[in-house]
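QA checklist item 7 of 12: single-chain prediction sanity check.
[x] sequence parsed
[x] length recorded as 374
[x] structure emitted
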Amino acid sequence: MNKIRLATVFSGIGSIEFALKRLNIPHEIVFACDTGEVEIDYNKEEELGIIRNLNNPKEKMKYVDDLYSGKTRKHNFVKDTYLANYKIKDGLFFQDINLLDGRDFKGQVDLFVGGSPCQSFSSVGYQKGLEDARGTLFYEFARLVMEIRPKVFIFENVRNILNHDNGKTWDVIKNSFDELGYKIDFKILNAVNFNIPQKRSRLFVLGFDKKYDISPNLPSKINETYERPDYTMQDFLLNNCKYGCFTHNSDGSLKIEKVGQGKIGERYYLSNAVRKYVLKDGTKNWHQKPEIDLPIARTLLKTMGNCHRAGVDNYVTDNGRIRMLTERECLRLMGYTDDFIMPVSVAQAYKQAGNSIVVDVMMKIVQYIMTFWN
């Protein structure tokens, strides 16, 4: 089988890359792109005009890197994590989708993957599809699909985008993909239906270039008879599966060896003051039951390192004390096995795990795509 040529934007810590790794599917990464939530001010049209006149992708990447380093001291920690885990052909990791010239990669990408923040579409007309999406980050994703012409794309976003602005935002997105010449299927997929004990629902859109005459049909769960995960959140804890014992089998499925007990640092246990706050059921006008030790985790948040209340966040009892999940346990609940390298601070690790896509959901989508691959 020929290697799948993969490219991603809003790449994060590489859910599709890790899915391909767990499935042992040959692939090469053509490029990746993520700002790491670093923002700068610049004249987009002016800078894009300069970039499009440069000679090659490496020159364009360097130009953008220099632009960022000249305007901010903030560091792209997502890039650090990504490059610690994956090798990119020619080292092409771009920092800004707005300044990425997709024409350099036309015909060089088989699978293109990304999401985008759900920006407001309130100022657009909702009638012209792609034209109406201008000024949004979704437009940049669609523009790259148009310029690159991948065989297949996967687009991921929050589930509420279907209802955003009374459904008008979704109409723009759906019409845009049709304009670009892709047949799509879209579904809300929940990680709990893909053997991960976390309630995490996201919108996934799968598109095939119409020239292949394939009408996609996204899988909604592992198989037709699937009812619940084989695991609970407790199976993923370091208390029950020490570091290095959360791996995967040759078919990509998780392998959890319940041997030994991993050491949990004191920083993860709640002080009396924090414990009282966490276990409150709310305020005068807002209440939520403060449940802990849930078998199925609540949706992991990128801000979970900040200790939200137990009606929002995930806490567990450990030898009579209450603690938060460690960043490694959060990575496990996103489908990243213990060979995943996290070279950043604890705060950054929480943020990057919470921003990611669940690997096991991506794995099932990839397996579906492979039924059409030749």
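[x] summary fact logged: The mean pLDDT is 92.
[ ] second reviewer sign-off
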